[in-house]
From TrEMBL:
This is Threonine synthase. Pathway: Amino-acid biosynthesis. The gene is thrC. Its cofactor is pyridoxal 5'-phosphate. PROSITE patterns: DEHYDRATASE_SER_THR (PS00165). Its EC number is 4.2.3.1. The keyword Lyase applies. CDD domains: Thr-synth_2. Signal peptide: none annotated. Belongs to the threonine synthase family.
Length: 477
C-alpha cells in the first residue's frame, strides 16, 4: 500500500515511511492510494471477537506486508492490554436509541490513548528495524500530550518533547504530562497559547536541516496511523448494535477533524454508517462551512471543552481532497487562499459530497452544561464536557432527522479530567480512577520556555545531545 499527499507534490510513501513522516514535505497530509473494502461477511464476523482481533483485521490491509503479521498482532495486543475495561471501548445506553461509546478507559482517560498506545509501538518497531533514533515532537492543548508522554515514556529509540501553553491546561492534564519521570520525556510549558505551541512545532518541521538531524516525528492527528487506529472502534461499536445488518449513525465531538474523519474511512471500507455528525463547541468553523460553503477562520474562544478549541481543523483537508475527487491542485489553491485571506469557498460538487455524509451542529456553553446536568439527573451518567457537546448535538440530530438508526456519541474523555465543569453543572466532583490516585501528589518535572523559536530549538538540540538534563521545577500553582 502506498500513501499520497493531499497536495500532490510529494513522492508516494510506504506505510512505515508515512508513519515516521507525519506531515508531507509539500505541506499536505498523507492518505492511502485506495481503501480496502471489507465484505458484509467479514464485518458480521467481528461479532464476539476481541477489540484487538478486530483492530488487526481493520489495520493490517493498510500495513500490507511491511510488518510481519505476528509482530503487528503483538503490538496491537500489547497496546489494548493497557486498557482498564475488558471490552476496551464499551457502549453505554443513555436514552432510547442513544448510546455513548466510552473511549476513556486507557491510561490517560481520553480517546487519544486508543491511537497513541499503538502509534508508539509502531514507531519504536520501525526505528528499531532501521537502527535509528527519532525525536518525537507535539503541541497539545492537554490530551494529546498526556497520551503521547504516557505511550512513549521509557522507549529507548526516542526522545519526546511536548509543548503546551503554560497555565492553560487543566491541572489533571498538566500533571499527566509532568509526573511521568522518564529521562526521555520533556514537558515544555510555552509562555503563550496553544496556537503558539502549534506554530513552534510546525516551524521545527519546516526547518529541513533540523528535521533531518533530529529525525523529527510528529504525533499530532495529522499522522495517518492515528486516524487508522481510530477507525477500529467505529467497527466494534456498530457491530455491537447490529451492523452490518442494521445501519448506525455516529456523533463525534470534533476539533481537528481527525476522529470524525476516521468514521468516514470506516464507511468507505464498507461499514453501513448512515449519518456522520460533526459536533463542535462554540468554535463552530465546521458547522458554518457545511451550512454556507465558506470555510472562514474566526477567533479561538476558550470553552469548558478545551480540546476542541480549534479554528484550523487540519484533517478537514483530507475530507476536502476526497470530496473533490482527489484533485490535488484544487487543494493546493484552497490552502494557499486560506493562508493568505483566512478563508476559502468549498466548490459546489465537493460541498454536496460532504453534505451527503455529514451533518454538523455547534453547541453553546450553556447547552453543554445543561446536557451534563440532564445526563446526571435522568440517566445517572457523569459525562465530560466534550462528550456532552456530542450528546447535545445527537439530540438535535434525532429531532431534525427522526431517530431512524441508533445514534452513537463518541465519549472522548473521562469526566474526572474536567472536574470543575462537572461540579459546576451537577454539584458533584468526579474522582480519578484508582490507577491515577497518586497523581495530585507526585513531583512534577517541566521546563518553562519563552515563546521564542530560537530558545525552543536550542533547548531541544541540547537535550537530544545530552548536554543538559531535565530541570525539575515546582508547579507554579
Ligand atoms: C482531541 C479531543 C477531541 C477532538 O478530537 P479531533 O480528532 O481533534 O477532532 C475531542 N474530545 C477530547 C476529549 C479530545 O481530547
Amino acid at each position: 500500500m502506498k500513501y499520497i499527499s493531499t497536495r500532490g507534490e510529494a513522492a508516494p510513501l510506504s506505510f512505515t515511511q508515512t508513519l515516521l513522516a507525519g506531515l508531507a514535505p509539500d505541506g499536505g497530509l498523507y492518505l492511502p492510494q485506495d481503501y480496502p473494502r471489507l465484505s458484509q461477511e467479514e464485518i458480521a464476523g467481528f461479532a464476539g471477537r476481541s477489540y484487538a482481533e478486530v483492530a488487526e483485521a481493520v489495520i493490517s490491509p493498510y500495513v500490507a506486508d511491511e510488518i510481519a503479521a505476528p509482530a503487528l498482532r503483538g503490538m496491537i495486543e500489547a497496546a489494548y492490554a493497557s486498557f482498564r475495561h475488558p471490552a476496551v471501548a464499551p457502549l453505554a445506553q443513555l436514552d432510547d436509541n442513544l448510546f455513548t461509546l466510552e473511549l476513556f478507559h486507557g491510561p490517560t482517560l481520553a480517546f487519544k490513548d486508543l491511537a497513541m498506545q499503538l502509534l508508539a509501538r509502531l514507531v519504536e518497531h520501525a526505528l528499531h528495524a532501521r537502527g535509528q533514533r527519532a525525536t518525537i515532537v507535539g503541541a497539545t492543548s492537554g490530551d494529546t500530550g498526556a497520551a503521547a508522554i504516557e505511550a512513549f515514556s521509557g522507549l529507548r529509540q526516542v526522545d519526546v518533547f511536548i509543548l503546551y501553553p503554560h497555565g492553560r491546561v487543566s491541572e489533571v492534564q498538566r500533571r499527566q504530562m509532568t509526573t511521568v519521570g522518564a529521562d526521555n520525556v520533556h514537558a515544555i510549558a510555552i509562555e503563550g497559547s496553544f496556537d503558539d505551541a502549534q506554530a513552534a512545532v510546525k516551524a521545527l518541521f519546516n526547518n529541513p536541516p533540523l528535521r533531518e538531524k533530529l529525525n523529527l516525528c510528529g504525533v499530532n492527528s495529522i499522522n495517518w496511523a492515528r486516524i487508522l487506529a481510530q477507525t477500529v472502534y467505529y467497527f466494534t461499536s456498530a457491530v455491537a448494535l447490529g451492523a452490518p445488518y442494521r445501519p448506525v449513525s455516529f456523533v463525534t465531538p470534533t476539533g481537528n477533524f481527525g476522529d470524525v474523519f476516521a468514521g468516514w474511512i470506516a464507511k468507505r471500507m464498507g461499514l453501513p454508517v448512515d449519518r456522520l455528525v460533526i459536533a463542535t463547541n462554540s468554535n463552530d468553523i465546521l458547522p458554518r462551512a457545511l451550512a454556507s460553503g465558506a470555510y472562514a477562520l474566526g477567533e479561538v474562544r476558550p470553552t469548558q471543552s478545551p480540546s476542541m478549541d480549534i479554528q484550523v481543523s487540519s484533517n478537514f483537508e483530507r475530507l476536502l481532497f476526497e470530496a473533490s475527487g482527489r484533485d490535488a491542485p484544487t487543494i493546493r489553491a484552497k490552502m494557499a487562499q486560506l493562508a493568505q485571506s483566512r478563508s476559502f469557498d468549498i466548490d459546489a460538487g465537493a460541498l454536496n459530497a460532504i453534505r451527503a455524509d455529514f451533518d454538523a451542529f455547534s453547541v453553546s456553553e450553556e447547552q453543554t452544561s445543561q446536557e451534563i446536568a440532564r445526563l446526571w439527573r435522568e440517566a445517572r451518567y457523569l459525562c465530560d464536557p466534550h462528550s456532552a457537546v456530542g450528546v447535545s448535538a445527537a439530540r438535535r440530530e434525532a429531532l431534525s432527522r427522526g431517530a431512524r438508526t441508533p445514534l452513537v456519541v463518541l465519549g472522548t474523555a473521562h469526566a474526572a479530567k474536567f472536574p470543575d465543569a462537572i461540579e459546576a453543572a451537577t454539584g458533584l466532583r468526579p474522582e480519578l480512577p484508582p490507577h491515577l490516585a497518586g497523581l495530585m501528589e507526585r513531583p512534577e518535572h517541566f521546563s518553562v520556555l519563552p515563546n521564542d523559536q530560537g530558545e525552543i530549538e536550542r533547548f531541544i538540540r541540547a537535550a537530544v545531545s545530552g548536554e543538559t538534563g531535565r530541570e525539575p521545577q515546582k508547579a507554579a500553582s
